[in-house]
Amino acid sequence: MSEALIIDGKTVAASVHAKSIEQIAEIKEKYGTVPGLAVILVGENPASQVYVGTKVKKCAELGIYSEKIVLPENTTQEELLAVIDRLNKDPRIHGILVQSPPPKQINEEEVVLAIDPAKDVDCFHPFNAGKLFLGDTTGFMPCTPYGVMKLLEYYKIPTKGKHAVVLGRSNIVGKPMAALLSNKGVDATVTVAHSRTENLKELLQTADILVAAIGKPEFVKADMVKPGAVVIDVGINRIPDATAAKGYRIVGDVDFAEVSKVASAITPVPGGVGPMTIAMLMQNAIRGFFNK
Ligand code: NDP
Questions:
Q1: Cα separations (Å) of 126 from 88, 113, 171, 253?
Q2: Per the residue annotation, which of 116, 120, 122, 208 is the catalytic one?
Q3: Of 73, 98, 181, 232, whose CB neighbour count within 10 A is largest?
Q4: pLDDT at 118
Q5: Residue 3: exposed, middle, or buried by beta-carbon count in 10 A (0-12, 13-18, 19+)?
Q6: What is the arithmetic mean of pLDDT over 18-22?
């Protein structure tokens, strides 16, 4: 089989950003203001610092007003909730996100519930998650699965009647991904696999579309993939590499070198799903502007 089509997340993200720039210009002209996003970072997790920095930088590039709120590692639940309360009431802010994972003393569930659902750009609040599972796509959509859907759409990858296997069942990626793929109009037949799934390899071999989101470096090997399948790799894993400038390199949950020889199309890591997540976050901030 020939080499797979490389699904280029950077190109697709650039097209989404171009649309965002147009939408922001229209909002500015019509309302004399711009959408606003608040990004809260609690503690000093190095990966989180990078993610937050990227989000704020992208806001500046697109013309979205942003607030980066950095709170110390020992921030209490009450202090964090007070910041969220202030942002919920701030008319300049249309989207609020708390970068995950927060330090241990923070109760994430309570934090999610404290964010005004109208500003819940991560789509973690049960109100928005509920809408999503009811097939209502008019509200917020969780950024990463939303980004995967955009990639499939951009590359006109057929989904109707196809068997999609979502590997991973987290509330952030796996479960909403399965919901979106099984929506009317998308019409995939979806199986969700996880760490307790039996005969995983045999199941994965039946996937026309395989979305891997487990956080296990290069877990998916060529012999687990049906020839001609479309493989979407959500994983972002840092693995030590003394030859790399930073001492580590980033790999996905799929062994790209071997799976790209079997799949018909595949996302690279980095440069696949990652850029889409941020592009869809920006879209959600714009959507939040209209949630008044
Ligand atoms: P979680 O750790 O929350 O969930 C992992 C899921 O994978 C769980 O459902 C778990 O099963 C399942 N799993 C773990 N090991 C195996 C295994 N050996 N076989 C089968 N299933 C397994 O991860 P997330 O969903 O938050 O993230 C997944 C990956 O995606 C990570 O690498 C993360 O960094 C990346 N990510 C990337 C984003 C992007 O923008 N590209 C955004 C968000 C995440 P069980 O439920 O049984 O424990």
A1: 17, 8, 11, 28
A2: 122
A3: 232
A4: 98
A5: exposed
A6: 98
Q: How far is the CA of 59 from the centre of ligand 1 (A)?
A: 27
Using the atom order of ligand 1, give the atom closest to the CA of residue 237.
32
User: Are the CB atoms for 123 and 67 separated by under 8 Å?
Assistant: no
The pTM (predicted TM-score) of the whole model is 0.97
Work out whether the CA dihedral 113, 115, 119, 121 comes out positive or negative: negative
The owner of tokens 């699965």 is: 145
Lowest mean pLDDT among 10-14, 133-137, 202-206, 270-274: 133-137
Alpha carbons 23 and 119: distance in angstroms, whole number: 18
Atom from ligand 1 closest to the CA of residue 194: 21
For residue 253, the ligand 1 atom closest to its alpha carbon is 32
Work out the average pLDDT over 32-36: 98
Catalytic annotation on 233? no
- The span from the CA of 23 to the CA of 106, in Å, is 36
State how far the Cα of 287 lies from the Cα of 123, in Å rounded to an integer: 12
- Confirm whether 120 is a catalytic residue: no
Residues having CB closer than 6 A to ligand 1 are 144, 167-170, 172-174, 193-196, 213-216, 234-237, 273-274, 277
